[in-house]
Amino acid sequence: MGARNARAAIGLGYRVPVSVETVSSVPEGALIRVWVVPGASRSEIVGIHDGRLKIRVTAPPEAGRANREVARLLGERLGSRVELASGSSSREKGFLVRGGDPQVVERKLTR
Predict the structure, then answer these.
(1) Taking all residues of the chain, what is their mean pLDDT, rounded to a whole number?
(2) What does the alpha-carbon distance between residue 1 and residue 19 come to, in Å, rounded to a whole number?
(3) pTM of this structure
(4) How far is residue 101's CA from residue 78's CA, in Å, rounded to a whole number?
């Protein structure tokens, strides 16, 4: 399967590889390391970029709109409330699943 088809497949809910670096345990729950691409043609989880979960969102990087869209997308996928923990003005971000178990978060991301 070519790279373009693999990305399309991921957008349709196919398995997304998650590395040990991507989701970690913190005292508050599970921390997801994310690489965000704002202003995309559609919002989707596309795979791994440099040890981070790569997420494209249609929202522009203005006034926190892209951050809110990533939190919403992750929250829908995980069935939990997700909040920005670090990187408010960077493409490299950390999102917290408060009270989340890292193993459960990894499993839900790879479904």
Answers:
(1) 85
(2) 21
(3) 0.81
(4) 11
